[in-house]
Amino acid sequence: MVTKFKRADGREVDEIRPIEAKVGVVPSADGSAMFKSGNTIAIAAVYGPKKMHPQHQQNPAKGQLRCEYSMLSFSVSDRIKPGRNRRAMEISEITKWALEPVLMLDKYPNQVVDVFINIIQADAGTRCAGINAAAMALAHAGIPMTDIVSSVAIGKLDKTLVADLTKEEEDFEEGEGPTDIPITLTHEGKVTHMQLDGKIGVKQLGEALDLAKVACEKVYEVQKKALKDAIDMKNGGEK
To answer: pLDDT tens digit string along 103-151?
Structure first.
């Protein structure tokens, strides 16, 4: 992997944008969280578990997860049309696939857990930010999980791998152009979701996964601190 590469925002190739996280941001929800990566901000709210309606969709063996991802019309400089579109529906399903492997839904037969994700500000990496916020919101709601997931987009700009793409980098046009690889990992390093938009060789894909593991560990530490801070606050600030 080439390391001498100048990124527009001055970051090193393996450096992610500044990140922030907080839980309990939607008081009416059973669990909620905010995840901010650079200029991208995602808010996730969890409702449930609750009885699945209509009844014919119930699963007596386990509960179900429903995710709804949406970019608010003011989240980008050029206002987007409100409501669901094909991209939002696709990312909703992707989010569900990324989260399901760590959820213990067998404890909730015939029930459903709803996750609503709103992107209130967008500068690339919105699906990853949404997954990170949703994972925290599910934990905050007390949904049993075997692990927590963290997500980051690894990019290939011409021949160079970089962590956590910006919108400007997504639009990179030099050489071989851009490759975008959103990756979601458990803290143990298991992949729950990976996408590939562009071209990359097998060897460099392995390097991209290694880069994602390092980046996701940084995301995990911020997620863990946000959840711990919420527990400390609930316990009256006791450490």
So the answer is: 999 999 999 999 999 999 998 889 999 999 999 999 999 999 999 999 9
Do residues 102 and 131 touch, judged by C-beta distance below 8 A?
no
Enclosing domain of residue 112: 19-234
The torsion region of residue 189 among left (phi > 0), alpha (psi -120 to 50) and beta comes to left
CATH of the domain at 205: 3.30.230.70
> Has this prediction a pTM greater than 0.85?
yes
What residues contact residue 228 under an 8 Å CB cut-off, 6+ apart? none
Does a structural domain hold residue 75?
yes
3-state secondary structure of 120: strand
**What are the helix (H) ranges across 70-201?**
86-99, 126-140, 167-170
State the total domains in the chain.
1
**Sequence-separated contacts (24+) of 156-160 with Cβ below 8 Å:** 156/181, 156/198, 156/200, 156/204, 156/208, 157/5, 159/2, 160/1, 160/2, 160/5, 160/13
